[in-house]
Design goal:
With 102 residues, the protein is mostly beta strands. It is built from 1 helix and 9 strands, in the order βββββββββα. The strands form 2 sheets. Strands 4-3-1-2-5-8 form a 6-stranded mixed beta sheet, with no helix packed on it. Strands 6-7-9 form a 3-stranded antiparallel beta sheet, with no helix packed on it. It is globular and about 40 Å long.
Length: 102
Amino acid sequence: MEVKLALKVSDLDNVATIFANDIKDGDQVEIRDKKGNSEIVTVKGDVPYGHKIATRDIHIGEDINKYGEEIGIATKEIVKGEYVHVHNLDSKRGRGDWKEAK
């Protein structure tokens, strides 16, 4: 069985981007980083091409980082390998209310 690829671009990232089609709940993907490290992770949820999974557990209220940038905040507990998208992430872009809360 071929292991599918996900990339973690920055050391700051706590998500990796899936570069494969038809990733289903329970599939395994190889998360690679720019240093050449890799890890096999079991995916939780069906993940479309170009979407992201958690590289570690992420707690409610914690920033979610992709490509070295804060892209949102976790609205639920997210476990390693879980699909990260609008169902468990709230965007911080263009929102003044998140800046005030910090």
